[in-house]
Amino acid sequence: MTIPLVRHGLFLAGLLTLGNLCTSCSDWAQAANEPPSAEAAGTWRLVRTVNPRGGADAVSVMHTADTSRSDLDLAGLMIRCSGERSELAIVLLSPFPLRAHPQVTFGDGAHSARFEANVGPPGTAIVLAGDPKELLGKAWSNESDLFIRVTDGPKTISGVVPLARVQSALMLLRANCPVPGSN
Fold first, then answer.
1. pLDDT tens digits, residue range 71-91?
2. Which of 118-127, 134-143, 149-158, 170-179 has the lowest average pLDDT?
3. For an engineered disulfide with 14, which of 48, 75, 103, 141 has Cβ 3.0 to 4.6 Å away?
4. Which CATH number is 2-176's, of 2.60.120.1680, 1.10.260.40, 2.60.40.1880, 3.40.50.300?
């Protein structure tokens, strides 16, 4: 009985972390009078956070991890605009050291791929270089779930993020990313 309550509490904490991370990672503070806007592509959420300094908005699509099949520290997956490209970040509840370079494995078994990642501020974003579509690969474009394992030394966090409608989420993100030099 206690474990389901803990999972739900951590799930809510994960949602809050995902909602606030795009602001934290881009070093923008959310304007007090302008809440972030959110749209949906299935269970993926588009989040736009206004830059109070007048620059480009922080825009991302996010999905929480399946809490029944994931470690409690895995909050979810975020794909965010980064200049003319997008970048993929795995969002955690427990921070990694900012100088760490954890290994990220996507997939399970024969359809797995391994990458070296960087840790983004405040330590709860594991950021992978490269195009998210290429990182996720064609092997997972038809899969319903993305298996994720993040390893740094003895610390391993793993779990599952549903991929249903990820293509729609990427199109929604692309349509809402700020145009470089427009602000």
1. 999 999 999 887 677 889 999
2. 134-143
3. 75
4. 2.60.40.1880
